[in-house]
Amino acid sequence: MLIAKTIVEVRTVRWADSNVTWGLVPTMGALHEGHLSLVRRARAENDKVGVSIFVNPTQFNNPDDLARYPRMPERDCDLLRAEGVDLVWAPDPPEIYPPGYQTYVTVEEVTRPLEGASRPGHFRGVATVVAKFFNVFQPTRAYFGQKDAQQVAVIRQMARDLAFNLEIVTCPIVREADGLAMSSRNVRLSDSERKSAVVLYGALFGASEAWKHGERSANKLREMMTRFIEAEPLARIDYVSIADPGTLLEIEGRAEQALLSLAVFIGEVRLIDNMVVGN
Ligand code: PAF
Question: Do the Cβ atoms of 142 and 24 come closer than 8 Å?
Fold first, then answer.
């Protein structure tokens, strides 16, 4: 497994043989089974697999969150080597944002609700860094997790609008045995917070069961999820949403198909999760 720092190194490896297909898994490191599921899918569908590890400063709207984001590069590389990854790209920030950098990618409507409303500037940072990765790496396919449902929608929109020549593959959420969605942020939870964190899955599961049993009122589903989370003392709601899966706008009437999503602080740690109901 090659570990590259610079754009020149990545391009040299990528274009050593132009007939080879490459899958790219962009990550911010602190890898868990969710990331490894993306790597395995990329491994199965491409001749070669590249993984980027870069904690992207421009997508953090809170400097404390950036400072506290877990970093474990050696452990990450060991995990990726064991998965048979061909190339890891772990650039230093000036390689991505050199002095004088001034170009950003702004995706419009789809970035406004949900995470975009709670974390101003977040998707500008995500779209910019992912566009740069696509441009440098030029993968045949790129892999993203459904846990960041809005991120996937934003990247798909950007790739379509800017005509990136690649396929975007979305992979299912990977959960712990009790239902908590895997996330790099989970390592920051104390033991008691870790137990409370299952409330996100509980709220989604409860609402999706109600939907399966015929409940279609978006308001009732939202209220049900809200009440469930409010009963957990360590949890503080950022948002609870029943949205149109295409536009991500809130549904006010009947939810025939919907993205159920939520962002909740468990202590200081902000977690997100989602489920889709309907086709
Ligand atoms: O999902 C992530 O880990 C990040 O948002 C991504 C896509 C690697 C961009 O920094």
Answer: yes
